[in-house]
């Protein structure tokens, strides 16, 4: 029987998703395990974790060999535990006896540099590493705001909007479902704040695009792509995420709402609709191919696309460990497909 391991930093993360995968595993002749990478015992290479019991539908504490197929759902931070687990997973990926569903993607800046040399470059927001507060503040021009964001961030956390008005620097961010604005009356104060921000974490800076609707709410299109059991990429679903009025991000974790893509696209004229759909199709068809030409193999992708008022399309973010909230909110009937996809693709890798 095949062994399938779900990797997580905390066993209370993604409990529903892991449970639904595990409940379907035995029907495909697969044993399912859940564990934290740091719980691998170095000498024996056994793991302290949980084994799923299909008779009771419960996770049972257990010690077991490292599973053959591994599904990495670790969301790493800057803490010591994250760094420890990240190093262990990196080691696991070097082993020829183990199979990862996907190997993940590098940080936002490495991703940008790879895509900047591809046919998708016209859809990218020009991005640079933030080297100092001076490099940002001294180049700020009135009416030309910028965004700074962590190169390894997720869920819209740590994203800031910066604008120069007269001699003041205005900073906006969305935190805990609230929009926060701070004004620096002097440039040196803003410079000191940015230098403190980047002291322990790397950020990139991008030109700000007004990607808002008629109510001044930020919105984007979240697209979920996955490989099927034959290794072919498919668009599973597209949904609209809409943020708070006057906010800067549309992430659901920051208070955003979810609505169907089809409702949004129908608001355009026939010619506009055809143009937008074709442009998005070209991006989504090309993206997985280009990424796998530059980086190790992947299993799934969450791609965020922005649309300007002039209908230009921008690639905002690419995530190799996407959630399923948008997909299941729009179409709950996708449950079976989403919960069995990792298992079916895992069996394909073994073959």
From TrEMBL:
The keyword ATP-binding applies. Residues 114-350 form the ATP-grasp domain. It holds the Pfam family ATPgrasp_YheCD. Keywords: ATP-binding, Nucleotide-binding. GO terms for molecular function: ATP binding; metal ion binding. This is YheC/YheD family protein. The lineage of its organism: Bacteria, Bacillati, Bacillota, Bacilli, Bacillales.
